[in-house]
Amino acid sequence: MKQIIFSMALLLTAPAGIALAAPVKTGTAPKSTLTTEWGEKVTPQNVWQQYPRPTLTRDKWQNLNGEWDYAILPKGASTPAKYVGKILVPYPVESQLSGVGKTVGEDNELWYRRKFTIPSSWKGQNINLNFGAVDWKADVWVNGVKVGGHEGGYSPFTLDMTDALKNGENELIVRVYDPSDKGTQPRGKQVDNPKGIWYTPVTGIWQTVWMEPVAKNSIEKLKITPDVDGNRLLVEGAVTGDGILDIAVFDNGKQVAASKGMAGEVIEVEMPADVKLWSTETPHIYDLTATLSKDGKIADKVGSYAAMRKVGIKRDDKGVIRFMLNDKPIFHFGPLDQGWWPDGLYTAPSYDAMVYDIDETKDLGFNMIRKHVKVEPELWYEYCDRNGILVWQDMPSGDKKKRWQNHNYHVGDEFERTPESDRQYRKEWLEIMENLHNHPSIVVWVPFNEAWGQYDTQNIATLTKDTDPSRLVNAASGGNYFFGAGDILDVHNYPEPRIYLLSDDQANVIGEYGGIGYPVKDHLWQSDRNWGYIEFKTPAELTDKYIEYIDILDNMANIAYTGGVYTQTTDVEGEVNGLLTYDRKVTKVDKDRVRKANRNLIRKYSKDSGKAEGRQYAPGDTK
Question: pTM for this structure?
Answer without folding.
Answer: 0.94
